[in-house]
Amino acid sequence: MTAPADRLLLATLRLDRGRLCALGITALVATAAALVLPGALAAAVDAAVSGRPVLRAVLWLLIVGAAEIAADIAGSLLTVRLVSAATAWLRRKLSGRLFALGVRSPFAEGDAISRLSGDCTGAGAIGTLVVQLVAILLIATGSVVLLALLDWRLAVVFLVSVPFALLIARSHLRHTADDVLTYQRVAGELAARMLDAVAGLRTIAASGIADREAARVLQPLPRLSRAGRGMWRTQARMVWRAALLFPAVELAVLVAAGFGVQAGRLSIGDVLAALGYVALGMRLVSQIPLLTAVSKARSCAERLTEVLDLPVPEPGRLGLLPGDGTLVVRHARVAGALENIDLTVAGGTFAAVVGRSGSGKSALAGLLGGLVPPDEGSVLLDGRPLDRLRPEELRAVVGYAFERPALLGTTVADAVGYGSWAGDAAVRAACRTAQVDDVVIRLPNGYRTPLAETPLSGGEAQRLGLARAIVHNPRVLIFDDATASLDTITEAAVERAMATALPGRTRVVITHRVSTAARADLVVWLEDGRIRAVAPHPALWREPGYRAVFTEDSA
C-alpha cells in the first residue's frame, strides 16, 4: 500500500483518541477476564472434587465471567460509535474533495458513490481492527505464559503449533490482499455502470436494447467473480487448515496434561484450565479472518487516497469589484474542448452561443462562469480573474441553469432556493419570472410539495432550474441549453419576464434555435473549439456555414 494510504489510516486512528483508548481499556479488561476465567474454573472444580467449600471459588468465577461480559458489551457499543465517527469523518473529507474537484473529477458517479459508501466504512473500521488484533496477541501470549506456569511442558507442546499458525496467517494475508483490492475496484466500476443504466432507463426502453445494456452493465461480473472466488478459496484454505490444527494442538496438550496428572504435577482442575488456555491461544488462528478485514481496510484507504491526492486549485481570496457583469476571456484554452479563445461580453449584453455538437459550447459556458478552469489563459469578471475571486462571492453573482437540472432539496421551494438564502417571497418571484409559478401552485402542497411527489415534465423541470438560477439576483446569467425543452412561445415569455425582473443583467445562452439567436444582442459562433465569428445574428445569417448550424426543427 502507498504511503498516503498509510497516513490516512493513521489519521483515522488518531481521530478519536479518547474513544479509542476507552475501547482499548475494555479490550484489556475482557482479555484479562478471559485469561483469568480458566484458572477460576479450575479452582472451583478442584474445590468441588476435594470437598472443600466452593462458595468463594464459584463467586469469583461469576465475578470474572460478569466482568468479561460487561467489557464485551461496552466494547461493542464503543466499536459502533468509533466506526460511525471515523466513517463520517472520512465521508466528509472525501465528499469535500469531490465537491472541490467538481467537473474536474475523473471518477464516474457510481464509482464515487462506491468510495463514499463502502470504502469509507471499510477504512473507518481500522481502529477497532487494530484493537482486536492487539487483544488477540495479548490473549495468545498470556495463554502461553499461564500454560507455562501450570507446567512448562504444556507450554512447549503448545508452542510447537505457533510456526504452523503463523504460516497459515502469512499465506492467508499474501493471497487475499490482491483479491480484496481487485474486488473493491471492480465493485466500483459495476456501481458506476449500474448508475448510468438507472439514469437512462427511458432511453434503454425506447431503444429496445435492454438485453444489450444488461450485458454491458454486468460485463465486469466475471472479474468480480474471480476476485470473490479467490477470497473464498483463501478463506476456505485457512478454515480447513485451522480446523485441523486446533484439535491436533488440543489433543497434544491434553495428552501432556494427562501425564502431568499421572505424575501428580497437575490436578483435574488444572487440566480444564490447560484446555481453556489452549482455546484462548488458538484464537490467533480462528481470528485470521481479521487479517482479511485489515487488508480490506488498507485497500479501501488506497482507493480513498486516489481521490484525496488529486490536486485542487487554491480558492481565490479576492472580493468582487463593482461592475455591470462584463466578461473577458483572454487566450483561453481548455484541453480537448477549446483553443485560443478571446472574447468580450459587455455588461448587460444578451449573448447567444451557437455551434454544431461538439464545438465546445458547454465548455465555453463553464469557462465563463468559473465551473471549468482554463488550462491556459484567463477569464475576468468586471476586471478581476475568476480564479482569484472568493468562491462564495463568485457563485453569488453568477447564476447557472442547465439542460437537465438536478433539483436538490426536500421540497419544491428547497429546490428553487438551493444554494441561496432566498426566502419564500424571493422563491415565488423567481418562479413567476421563470413562468412556472402556475404549475407549482397547482401541486397538492404548493411550494411545500415534496420533490419525490412532484411529477414534472422536462420543460417544467427546466423552468424550475431557471428559477433557481435567478433567485439570488445574480449579476451574470449563464444558460447551458437551459430552455431546450420549452416551446418557443414560453421561451420568449421567460426572456421578456427576465428582462423586466432582472434588467441590465449579462446573459450568455447556449442555444440551437434560430429564434433565440435572433433575439440576442450578440452571437458567438463556435466551430471545432474555436470562435469562428462574433457578430449580431443578421450579419452572421449571410454565411451558409452559420445557417447550417441550425436544423429546420429548431428554426
Strand segment count: 10
Overall pLDDT score: 84
Which regions have little confidence, pLDDT < 50, spanning 5+ residues? none
Largest sheet: 6 strands, mixed
For the biggest β-sheet, the strand order reads: 6-7-8-3-9-10
Approximate helicity band:
55-70%
Give the oligomeric state of the chains in this entry, treating copies of one chain as homo and distinct chains as hetero. single chain
- How many angstroms does the end-to-end distance come to? 58 Å
Quick one: overall form? elongated
Q: Please work out how many helical segments DSSP would assign.
A: 23
Structural category is alpha/beta
Percent strand: 5-15%
What is Rg? 34 Å
Structure description:
The protein is an alpha/beta fold. Helices cover 64% and strands 10% of the residues. It contains 23 helices and ten strands. Helix 4 runs antiparallel to helix 7 (162-199) and helix 5 packs antiparallel against helix 13. The radius of gyration is 34 Å and the shape is elongated.
